[in-house]
Design goal:
The chain is mostly beta strands and 162 residues long. Helices cover 6% and strands 44% of the residues.
């Protein structure tokens, strides 16, 4: 018998932190000091895509074209809902143009659960791009897309430190 599907519903935490001393071992205190964004990001608005370059390793003697895995670049975009009251417009107020910070993501655990030691996550050092307001639609919240530029090495498999 196959087990039940692992659901994403309510089980993704997305936190924007201004400071993390070690990307490979962020502390629970650093992550909990950040701004949680998962309640403002649209249900399909967390876009993190690793793009891996191909390295041509074909030799002069080769009869076939061959390649190997090269460097990885992360493309990161968040689609975020706007709020009517400025003080509650957390996504807009946090993801401002040229803001440096760290995007931390935890999957497969209730988003209400605070970050704690030994949890698994992802940390991306980023600079926010200019917010891109999306065209208005009937019966939909106003949204903007924030492209985040991963400017130094990320770690997509961290363990939170104490």
């Amino acid at each position: 018998m196959a087990g039940a599907d692992l659901l994403g519903d309510g089980n993704v935490k997305v936190t924007f932190c201004l400071t993390i001393a070690n990307v490979n071992a962020p502390t629970a205190a650093e992550l909990n000091a950040g701004v949680d964004l998962q309640e403002f990001i649209t249900k399909d608005g967390l876009g993190i895509s690793p793009e891996q370059a191909a390295v041509d390793n074909t030799a002069l003697a080769s009869r076939d074209e061959t390649e190997d895995a090269g460097t990885v670049k992360y493309s990161i975009e968040l689609t975020v809902k706007r709020k009517e009251i400025a003080a509650e417009d957390i996504g807009w107020n946090t993801l401002v143009d040229r803001q440096l910070g760290y995007l931390a993501v935890r999957r497969n655990m209730a988003h209400e659960t605070a970050w704690a030691a030994d949890q698994k996550g992802e940390v991306y050092p980023v600079r926010c791009g200019r917010p891109n307001m999306q065209p208005p639609e009937l019966n939909a919240a106003q949204r903007f897309v924030s492209k985040l530029f991963n400017h130094t090495a990320a770690d997509a498999d961290v363990t939170v430190a104490a």
